[in-house]
Specification:
With 184 residues, the chain is an alpha/beta fold. It has one domain (6-174): P-loop containing nucleotide triphosphate hydrolases (Rossmann fold, 3-Layer(aba) Sandwich). The chain is built from seven helices and six strands; from the N terminus they run βαβαβαβααβαβα. It has helices at 26-38, 56-61, 86-104, 116-122, 127-135, 152-157, 170-174, and strands spanning 16-20, 44-49, 67-72, 110-114, 142-147, 160-163. Strands 3-2-4-5-1-6 form a six-stranded parallel beta sheet, with helices on both faces. Strand 2 (44-49), helix 2 and strand 3 form a beta-alpha-beta unit.
């Protein structure tokens, strides 16, 4: 049963959670937390960095009044070491600003920066920019960061860190691609 008592419910203390590593499940964990929170009337904003694809969560959450999800990517792959197109950097910067506005709006209890750590690794964002973002976190907002290749400064800053470790994966074992409804 979904409740809509948002004006009476707020987190008394929000923490910084980090879901990192090379294993599958980081975004899924963040989405699961958002879904659980929505059942209690909490509102979540999810900013997905480096994504511009019709992932299943977009349709699934479209009618959920407690969850807002937006993507900040160009739709093509970025490779580390290559010259990064300005449009990719601009999308990441736009995403960080939109997520910051959501976090400071008072409208959301939970803010997710999906794939933000890999955005730093690729050079779309600077680790200092993400740390400055975290410095602005209101006391009652929970912030969730996800991604691979997490800078040690973000690990040190988080209150909760969960590492998803790949033990066996059919991508590498069998050469399978992402499947609709399972990985995307």
């Amino acid at each position: 049963m979904q409740t809509d008592n948002h004006q009476n419910k707020h987190l008394s203390k929000g923490y910084i959670q980090l879901y990192m590593g090379d294993g599958k499940g980081k975004t899924t964990a963040a989405l699961g937390l958002a879904l659980r929170a929505s059942g209690h009337g909490f509102r979540t904003y999810i900013g997905q960095f480096m994504k511009k694809h019709p992932y299943g969560e977009l349709g699934a959450l479209d009618n959920n009044p407690h969850i807002t999800i937006e993507q900040y990517g160009t739709g093509h792959y970025v490779r580390r070491g290559d010259i990064i197109p300005k449009e990719d950097i601009a999308k990441a910067q736009e995403g960080l600003e939109r997520v910051r506005a959501a976090m400071l709006s008072g409208e959301y209890d939970i803010v997710v920066l999906d794939e933000v750590t890999i955005s730093v690794w690729f050079g779309l964002l600077e680790v200092g920019e993400v740390l400055a973002f975290l410095d602005e976190k209101p006391e009652c907002v929970e912030v969730i960061l996800t991604g691979r290749r997490t800078p040690r400064e973000l690990i040190a800053r988080a209150d909760l860190v969960t590492e998803m470790r790949a033990v066996k994966h059919y991508y590498t074992e069998q050469g399978l691609e992402a499947r609709v409804g399972i990985e995307r």
